[in-house]
Amino acid sequence: MSNDKVNTGHNIEDKELIINARKPVGELGNQILDRMNKSHENMAQWGVSHIEIKEDSKILDVGCGGGRNIQRFAEQISENGRVVGIDYSDVSVEKSIELNQEAMDRGIVNVLHCSVSEMPFFDETFDIVTGFETIYFWPDFINDLKEVNRVLKKGGLVFFCNEAVYREGEMEKYDDLVELLDMKIYSEDVLRESLEKTGFDDFKAYVNEENDWICVTAKKIQ
Ligand SMILES: C[S@@+](CC[C@H](N)C(=O)[O-])C[C@H]1O[C@@H](n2cnc3c(N)ncnc32)[C@H](O)[C@@H]1O
To answer: For a disulfide at 144, which of 32, 65, 87, 138, Cβ 3.0-4.6 Å?
Structure first.
């Protein structure tokens, strides 16, 4: 999703490729994951500047895609930290493993195939749960947030970073993309309400006006 055409959904030049952003499959899935690892980089760097990663942080990246954010976090932790990526696409899991093989061999990274709706983790496992460009596709946002809340430690941080934000009267530009990908674009208010309804507080939102990016954080209630 690097250029304006893809960003807004107008003039989507290659629908067969772009549809893979929702759940990458096969060779085109492979291609879009390579592309997203690069095209999401500036937004991701901006987003993570709002959160603190400690050397012993236990981090879960949901919808890890091509695995670039797993790699970023793995570079910031010591042998006492952990990064786990999950994705419900086989190709995303394969790509994330390929990119992070060395850190996996060192035992600080793991990548699993599952949906956010039902994750194979004990309650209160992680300090931080992140999601970059993925919540648009979650099947049941409220229940999925409850599942995220379950696997976070008390006081743990949830972080979402999106390049599409809902704004009243400005959504027409996303029509093609929303239809193609069946995606839900959330406003800051809906993100706040949804997180407050599912066991989080201390909501914070950051907006990059120049690019229209949003990232939000909230903490699991102690
Ligand atoms: C647009 S890509 C973003 C990938 C990566 N986070 C990035 O920023 O480049 C969305 C990813 O979320 C994954 N995804 C969507 N819904 C999911 C779900 N319910 N559970 C797990 N992964 C999901 C997709 O398979 C895909 O890899």
So the answer is: 138
pLDDT digits (tens, 9 = 90+) for 74-94: 999 999 999 999 999 999 999
Say yes or no: CB of residue 9 within 6 Å of ligand 1: no
Q: Is 167 exposed, middle or buried (0-12, 13-18, 19+ CB in 10 A)?
A: exposed
85 touches ligand 1 (CB under 6 Å): no
Predicted confidence (pLDDT) at residue 5 exceeds the cutoff of 80: no
For residue 76, the CA-to-ligand 1 centroid distance in Å is: 22
Cβ–ligand 1 distance for 23 under 6 Å, the answer: yes
Asked if 192 contacts 203 with a C-beta cutoff of 8 angstroms, the reply is yes
Residue 127, ligand 1, Cβ within 6 A:
no
Q: Are 140 and 117 in contact (CB under 8 A)?
A: yes
Dihedral sign computed on CA atoms, order 173, 179, 181, 183: positive
| pLDDT tens sequence across 127-149 | 999 999 999 999 999 999 999 99
The CATH number of residue 211's host domain is 3.40.50.150
To the nearest whole percent, how much of the chain has pLDDT over 90?
93
Closest-CA residue, ligand 1 atom 18, reads: 115
Task: Indicate the number of domains in the chain.
Answer: 1
Is the alpha carbon torsion for 104, 43, 124, 87 positive or negative? negative
